[in-house]
DNA sequence: ACTTATAAAGGGTTTTTTCCTGTTTTGTTT
DNA sequence: AAACAAAACAGGAAAAAACCCTTTATAAGT
């Protein structure tokens, strides 16, 4: 332990109860940590982070309303390249983990860990600059050995333009293509083109495949 | 405050970090609460709860691997009818809320509440037997005024038999009906019948509607 | 002014889905 | 064994989806 001042932390998570709980946990174990601010999502983070009082480590959730963890991390590494990011997520999909690691986060934890492991992770990041468990390393290696899926799926979000996203949402409903064409003020033949383009881009073969792809990648609301 | 002994609580949530955080929060505010056990899911709960040391209130998550919140609550109200259940969930879908209320839970909270509201909820349940916010009441009233969706969707799970569920899973892939028929060792015409039956039962009009219904109601895996 | 790229639109065809109408087979009850 | 219900199967037809290849308009880049 070579630090003299307390480690400055920031929390980004949309669940207030989780944030408060985390604060409780962190305060309980020694007084090494100081939470300088909390944020509910990426946008909130952008407003609250300050140049002259940067946190050492940001504990970041991934799935949040508003700006999600991916965009928040992208923005952070551009704007505050010195800040260490530790992701704490409920999701353990390889895709998401690898995506985050590629963006440059210093660690990835699940929410069902022991409080002690959180402490280890924080200390490891301060001292060594990273904290990767064997499980994460395993995922990473697997993704290197099987790059296909990831390269296909790679961005998915940035692969589709505004209009295609709009079409995709309609394609996930019970509307016929003719109805979609009418709603989008386009010819059915143009809709034909959109469908074929998305089949190609997303590597699917049917409208059901399209819809399932969309839900798998969180491209459409699954509300009601 | 008329209680003399501390209120006995139990936590059921699959995220250890959240449980520990919750414990921290609860311990911080006075010593009114005593956590007698934690569980990761419904099955874990069944093993850890004891007749001679029942909790006053069980804080219950909904979406958990293993036995989920619904089945856990069903089992609880049958086996331990005196135990009060307070749901703490990230999900605010009317369907889920109403379903839980029908099962007899005494309160429903979101995870992004203030720690203070949790305390209010716990005290309210001890003193008045329930804690329903205006938002929950609103959802409930809306569900009474618009019962259609809920009655259609009501059980969904118990509405479909084994074979229909199997068909539904295939229908959510890119297989054609002919291919599904072959895979299920049935005539394409029988598959026709399955499709029509599900269209009727689930009140959808197309295969995409079927697939979207399935994902919305968690009837199919959204893995990879 | 001339390529280049791209979104939009069209014509025509095949396959799949969807919707009717039924009949046969199978299992269960009485 | 007769009666009944449910599951399986069929013929035929209309609609929608999917695929082919071609053309126009429009803007951007050189």
Describe the structure.
2 copies of one chain form a homodimer. Helices cover 52% and strands 12% of the residues of chain A. Chain A has helices at residues 16-28, 42-48, 69-79, 94-103, 115-128, 134-145, 147-153, 162-171, 177-183, 188-202, 207-216; strands at residues 7-12, 33-39, 57-60, 84-89, 107-110. Residues 150-154 of chain A have low confidence and may be disordered. Chain A is elongated, with a radius of gyration of 21 Å. Chain A has 224 residues and is of the alpha/beta class. In chain A, strands 2-1-3-4-5 form a 5-stranded parallel sheet, with helices on both faces. Chain A folds into 2 domains: 7-145, Response regulator (Rossmann fold), CATH 3.40.50; 155-216, Arc Repressor Mutant, subunit A, CATH 1.10.10.10. The structure holds a DNA duplex (30 and 30 nucleotides).
Strand order of the largest sheet of chain A: 2-1-3-4-5
The largest pleated sheet of chain A is described as: 5 strands, parallel
Element-by-element helix/strand order of chain A: EHEHEHEHEHHHHHHH
Q: Which overall shape of chain A is indicated by the principal axes computed on the Cα atoms?
A: elongated
Rg of chain A, alpha carbons = 21 Å
Under the CATH scheme, the architecture of the largest domain in chain A is 3-Layer(aba) Sandwich
